[in-house]
Amino acid sequence: MARRRQLFEGKAKILFEGPEPGTLVQYFKDDASAFNAQKKGTITGKGVLNNRISEYLMMRLAEIGVPTHFIRRLNMREQLIREVEIIPLEIVVRNVAAGSLATRLGIQEGTRLPRSIVEYYYKNSALNNPMVCEEHITCFGWAATQDLDDIVALALRVNDFLTGLFLGVGITLVDFKIEFGRLFENDDMRIVLADEISPDNCRLWDTKTGEKMDKDRFRRDLGKVEEGYQEVARRLGILPEAGIRDMKGPEGLQ
């Protein structure tokens, strides 16, 4: 088996060179972190579940015309993606008050918002990913006004679709964080959905009971973290028949 060169390692994923120019291999880890890596741990099988969940959601979004970096899943923990220039912004879409919004504005968690809110955060862990506005983004050249228009339109489209999809399996999409990148093809550039969509970056509550099925179970020491992720996959109909089993990690270039 040919060894692959590791390009980047983040909190939850590792990126390797892809088999063809313009592609990368994205490997999902079981590592978990919260509060800007102040809390760290391991969620057994998380990488396998997030790989499957993100694959499923990316494919469903592609079916309605949302452009993504996803190409195909390679195995239990890896997927082939297009190489993009990541825009240094985290886009958060909120439907229900929770997390930092509830704390920051003194809104009771669980309050449904009058309309969906889109927030921007500068993707910089050393600065604790500060919240920014359009003026900051355009002033410092992180994205142009047209880029932001495309990003917001895509984010709201993703929200509308996923809200309905999750509602159909008894899950409330409270909020989620996504990232976008610039995909260059010949002389053309387009904005595409990148990173992942999984319980790592979505708040997912049982519609009837309010039970949390996402990384808040890890953040808040609620227990049964693995079970929460598995329940999301089960309701989406993609929990591996053999259950969660560990897979050997990819080899890096020595």
From TrEMBL:
GO BP terms in the entry: 'de novo' IMP biosynthetic process; cobalamin biosynthetic process
SUPFAM superfamilies, per database record: SAICAR synthase-like (SSF56104)
Pathway(s): Purine metabolism; IMP biosynthesis via de novo pathway; 5-amino-1-(5-phospho-D-ribosyl)imidazole-4-carboxamide from 5-amino-1-(5-phospho-D-ribosyl)imidazole-4-carboxylate: step 1/2
GO cellular component: cytosol
InterPro entries reported in the protein's UniProt record: SAICAR_synt/ADE2_N, SAICAR_synt_PurC, SAICAR_synth, SAICAR_synthetase, SAICAR_synthetase_CS
EC number in record: 6.3.2.6
Reactions listed under catalytic activity: 5-amino-1-(5-phospho-D-ribosyl)imidazole-4-carboxylate + L-aspartate + ATP = (2S)-2-[5-amino-1-(5-phospho-beta-D-ribosyl)imidazole-4-carboxamido]succinate + ADP + phosphate + 2 H(+)
Enzyme's top EC category: ligase
Keyword field: ATP-binding, Ligase, Nucleotide-binding, Purine biosynthesis
Signal peptide (residue range): none
GO molecular function: ATP binding; phosphoribosylaminoimidazolesuccinocarboxamide synthase activity
Domain SAICAR synthetase/ADE2 N-terminal: 7-235
CDD domains the record matches: SAICAR_synt_PurC (cd01415)
Pfam families tied to this protein: SAICAR_synt (PF01259)
Keyword Nucleotide-binding assigned: yes
Family according to the record: Belongs to the SAICAR synthetase family.
Name listed for the protein in its UniProt record: Phosphoribosylaminoimidazole-succinocarboxamide synthase
Gene name of this polypeptide: purC
